[in-house]
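Bumping my old thread because nobody answered last time. Still need a sequence for this structure:
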């Protein structure tokens, strides 16, 4: 009987521990992966927008709205990317809008701000500290664990940063064309020249005159690879590739849920770098 009571007590304590996990909701997959690098297994982290779906065209379902309302911490990208979440925010949750803490780059033709702030190593280092502080406020008992995770994550980001700079030092001509302005922060940080984007606005196909200008840029800068994105489709990519004879490949600004952020960014960079070597 005593053994049964002890077993019941252990199971009860275990269930309390599991159910007591902090619930963190992020708007996009890469933010969820960044948060998980800091929170580790002490929090339940989810991304509202599924992998493979563009944040620019997403519309939340009633089930998603319920997840938002049940969150302890809500991490928002901001800069106009996830504006739709404002009407559904749980005001009892801790809300972290990352775009409030980093310098923003103006959008195409000076309209709005470029929202792709998670594709900058220096920005993500800043985010790690902000997430750490927010978690420590919500869950002070695990503060040491979060701080250790943050230190390790930042060390890996620093190592990635050094590696990118070292590899780029051997390239004089750093020109590339992306599908839409996802990689502007990354390009600015490392002195890479984003000479054109195929879609200035997501889902807006370029007109024939714009396509001809891109073809001219391809030839002028001796571009070898045309980058598309797995979340967005465009006939223009195939038209330009067919006209110029260059290869096409994908840069993925979102990645997959549960993917290590450092590995995700490194794999994209290696594709950009490889295009310089063609």
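Sorry it took so long. Here it is:
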């Amino acid at each position: 009987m005593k053994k049964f009571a002890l077993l019941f007590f252990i199971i009860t304590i275990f269930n309390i521990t599991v159910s007591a996990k902090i619930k963190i909701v992020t708007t996009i997959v890469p933010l969820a992966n960044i948060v998980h690098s800091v929170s580790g297994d002490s929090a339940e982290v989810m991304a509202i927008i599924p992998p493979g779906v563009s944040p620019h065209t997403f519309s939340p379902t009633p089930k998603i709205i319920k997840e938002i309302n049940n969150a302890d911490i809500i991490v928002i990208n901001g800069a106009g990317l996830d504006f739709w979440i404002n009407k559904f925010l749980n005001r009892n949750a801790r809300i972290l809008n990352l775009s409030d803490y980093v310098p923003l780059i103006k959008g195409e033709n000076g309209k709005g701000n470029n929202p792709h702030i998670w594709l900058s190593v220096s920005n993500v280092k800043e985010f790690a500290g902000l997430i750490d502080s927010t978690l420590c406020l919500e869950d002070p008992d695990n503060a040491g664990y979060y701080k250790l995770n943050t230190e390790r994550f930042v060390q890996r980001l620093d190592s990635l940063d050094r590696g990118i700079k070292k590899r780029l030092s051997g390239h004089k001509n750093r020109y590339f064309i992306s599908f839409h302005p996802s990689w502007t922060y990354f390009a600015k940080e490392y002195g890479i020249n984003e000479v054109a984007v195929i879609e200035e606005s997501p889902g807006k196909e370029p007109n024939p005159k714009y396509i001809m200008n891109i073809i001219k840029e391809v030839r002028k800068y001796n571009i070898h690879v045309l980058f598309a994105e797995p979340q967005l489709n465009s006939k223009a990519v195939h038209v330009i590739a067919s006209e110029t004879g260059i290869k096409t490949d994908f840069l993925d600004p979102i990645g997959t849920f549960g993917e290590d952020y450092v590995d995700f960014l490194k794999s994209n960079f290696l594709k950009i770098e490889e295009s310089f070597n063609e």
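Residues 163 and 169 are 10 Å apart (CA to CA). Let me know if any region looks off to you.
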